[in-house]
Structure formats: C-alpha cells, structure tokens
Design brief:
Number of strands: 17
Helix content: 25-40%
Number of helices: 8
Number of domains: 3
Order of helices and strands: HHEHHEEHEEHEHEEEEEEEEEEEH
CATH architecture of the largest domain: 2-Layer Sandwich
Length: 360
C-alpha cells in the first residue's frame, strides 16, 4: 500500500469518526493510525521521533482493583476472568461515555486520559460513576455467588508528553511525565471504593464536586508533602460515592517484631511479651501475639519503624478482633493513644511502604 493509499484510508476513517462523534482526530491519533495502517499493509512503520511527541495538559484517571491477587489465588481462572472482564467492561463504558481515552490496561488496573474543555469535570464524573457501577456490580455478584471486587481511583491533572515510543519493529503510544507517575502514587493511597484527587485537579474543580478535608501525604521523589482530597459526590448530577471501605487508612502487609505489656485496671504490667505485626495502618495493626488476648483488653506496645528511624514505644491499643489461624493467635489492635510524633512517623512509614520502599 503506497503512502497515498494510506492517506486516503486515513481520511475515510476520519470522516467516519467525525460523523459518529462530531469531532476530528487529534494529531497524535492520526500518527498512531498511520502506523497501524502501514503495519496492516505489510510496510515497516517509521521509527518514532521527537516530532511524534506533543506537550499538553490532561487529566489522568487511574483505577486499580483491590484484593485481586488474593481473589486470583482463591478462585478458578474461569471465574476470575469472568469477574475481571465484567469489571473492565463496566469501567470502560464509563470512560467512553465521558469522552475519555483508555490509555492502557495493566493487569488489574486501567488508565484513562481526559483532555480538552471540561476535562476535570468529565474525569471526576467518570470516577464517581465507576464507583457507583462497581457497587451495583458487586450486588449482582453477591446474588450470583460470584466474588466481589473493589476499586481505588486516583485522579490528577498536569502536563504530559504524548506520542509514540519504540522502534521501527514495534512502537506504541505512551504518556510520559512526572504527572503520570504522580497519579499512580495518588491511587496507591485510595481505599476500597474511594476517589482521591491531587491539588492541581482540586484547584480546577471549583464547587463542581463535594470534597473532603485535605490530607497531607508523603510522595516518593518529592521533598515536600502534598495534599490530596477525597471526592465524595457531585451534587449537581445527584451522584454520591458509595464508599465500601470501613477502614480509616491504608493497610499494608509487613513483618515487624514488637513487644507489648498488658494493662490491668489501667496499670501497665511489667512483663513484656513478644509478637509480630503482620499488617499496619494509621490507626491499628494486625498482630501475631502468640498468647490469647481477651477481646477489648488493653495493652501498651512498642516497635521500631526502621524507614523513619523512630521507636514507637508510647502506643496504647485495644483488642478489637481475635482469630486463630494455623495455630497462631491473631489480634486486631486499634490504637487508643499515641504521641503526635509517633503518629506522624507511623503515617510516614505506611506511606513509604505503599510506594515501594522496602524494610531492610
């Protein structure tokens, strides 16, 4: 197929798109389509060059499924694929409905791009509708005895470079820039059923959405902390996020040794008992305590936070859950008191673990 034929096919496709959507293809999309047509014709596409790239402001939406790894391990592949496909069909429909572009699927996550006029409003509406759709999908799954899936969503607005990367043999469209990585960091803080957005998105949001109080978080690669906002709903559209997570903070699996002392009549007993923290959040931990602790009993605990060089030895907690698993006594501990310094260091520790820092 000669270049003139490829250009003719491109014009026909553009006419079809314009008739169906009322808009024309942007320059980046034309370049991608030319490579596709050349590949179908058996021609070697041109290697991507710097001219392929454009700088533009976009709003990025990243949605990630929570608990997908454990779901995969607990159910047959056929059920996992059915549930995953139903989830992605639902979320993809919301993205297309709000004129977003699906950038990529990556395992159990999906990234979408919104650009042009009203990009922030469309992205936030899409995010809220995705959570509403997931809520309805889970209700259907319960009725059909299928496993439920939950989603965390991060939204960020910023500058990106968009274009083709690769070689003459293979090239793909990609978004490059700090704001792409930042969106992933934001999404990592979201809880099940939650939508979080960056400061830049919130600044462009105005009073379009109902949002929560700012929360300061550590973001890997940034010297200063940044603020995130939770999207609660969009009043003008009658939309509200049906939150699923009863936890008040992210939780992450760890294996941290700790010691604790029991309390009797508010007196700390001298005996120290060793245990292991199995997961940690801002307000509590799940611990292997070796000894059975009575429900609602109180303890004082202490442990090292190696990533932030802090010893948290002033934490008091209450046993709010008990379980036995493979001969181990597990206790869910809810913090009842800790110093401001330990609280700040603990939150930083959790946030660093969420973003890939490893405990040596």
């Amino acid at each position: 197929m000669r270049e003139s034929h490829i250009r003719d096919a491109l014009r026909r496709i553009e006419d079809i798109v314009a008739d169906a959507t009322g808009t024309t293809l942007p320059a980046e999309a034309e370049k991608r389509l030319i490579n596709v047509l050349a590949g179908l014709a058996g021609e070697r596409p041109r290697a991507p060059t710097v001219e392929n790239f454009s700088h533009r402001e976009v709003t990025i939406l990243l949605a990630d499924l929570r608990g997908f790894t454990s779901l995969s391990a607990a159910h047959p592949a056929g059920i996992v694929l059915e549930v995953l496909n139903r989830c992605f069909v639902t979320t993809s429909e919301a993205i297309v409905r709000h004129q977003g572009t699906i950038d990529k699927f990556a395992g159990d996550s999906i990234m979408a791009i919104f650009s042009g006029a009203g990009d922030v409003h469309r992205a936030l509406t899409c995010a809220v509708e995705m959570q509403i759709a997931m809520h309805a999908l889970n209700a259907d799954h319960r009725s059909r005895q299928l496993p439920e899936l939950y989603m965390g969503i991060g939204v960020n607005t910023g500058q990106v470079m968009a274009g083709l990367v690769g070689s003459e043999l293979y090239s793909a469209y990609a978004l490059i820039g700090e704001d792409v990585s930042l969106t992933s960091r934001i999404e990592a803080f979201s809880l099940r059923g939650q939508v979080l957005m960056s400061e830049s998105t919130a600044a462009r949001c105005g009073d379009f959405a109902t949002i929560g109080e700012p929360m300061e978080v550590y973001v890997k690669g940034r010297s200063a902390r940044m603020q995130l906002r939770e999207v609660v709903g969009i009043p003008s559209l009658g939309l509200a996020v049906p939150r699923q997570e009863i936890r008040r903070s992210p939780r992450i699996a760890v294996k941290l040794p700790f010691s604790f002392q029991r309390l009797e009549k508010k007196i700390v007993l001298p005996e120290r008992i060793a245990g292991t923290i199995l997961d940690v959040g801002y307000h509590g931990v799940l611990a292997d305590v070796a000894h059975e602790l009575p429900l609602f009993s109180e303890i004082k605990l202490g442990f090292e936070l190696p990533l932030v060089a802090h010893t948290a030895d002033d934490i008091y907690a209450r046993v709010v859950k008990r379980a036995e698993k493979k001969g181990h006594q597990l206790a869910g501990l809810e913090f009842t008191s800790l110093s401001p310094e330990s609280n700040s260091k603990l939150q930083l520790f959790v946030q660093m673990l969420l973003q890939g820092h490893e405990v040596n």
